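Troubleshooting log. The previous structure file for this entry was overwritten by mistake, so regenerating from the original sequence record. Sequence copied from the archived sheet and checked twice against the printout by T.R.
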Amino acid sequence: MDGAAGAAAAAGADRAGGVAGAVVRRAVVVLAGALASVALTACPSDADGPADSDPAPGYRMRTDARFAPPGAFVPSAAVTYDDTGLVPPAAWIEVSQRSEERGRTTVALRVTGLKAGHAYGVHVHRDPCGAEPAAAGGHYQHRPSTDPAAVNPENEVWLDFTADDRGEGGASARHDWNFRRGEAASVVLHAEPGGAGARLACFTVPFGWAG
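Regenerated output below.
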């Protein structure tokens, strides 16, 4: 896929969130200049008929990638900044989103190839990944605030987990709110659970909105 085709695909993916059209597609698209596999579903209203077995209008997304260091010959939407073995190159990540129109949102995470037994902190961030860990910006917050007390799993999307003895893990978070349009763009893996911790890796994700 060339750059123009990738950009068009990414733009189409962005439009899928919040659009009541029967659209289902899986493709390898360019996200922030890097490859990722993405499956998107924009569910229609009842009048238009269901897009799948779930007739509720909303937004469905699932995307996965293998981590690669910044500047890798084959770039990836999943970038690892880590040199300690906590998120090694070729580790795998999948993120999914299920949002109901003007209602509940569930975000789920699965990973493989990480350090067995390590506890990771994971949050949804506002901006896409970049060559530096800080590129992803701050945590997405339902009610934006500079108050440190607002950094909590009720106001943000936290997906903390501990890798099992095979280096695999996963988590999910459910909230009674949707993402605001264009304000959630990545998932960041931190060196420790909780509200902070060094940024080990980042995955650019086409989060959508509904309603």
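The chain is about 5% helix and 35% strand. Archived copy saved in two places this time.
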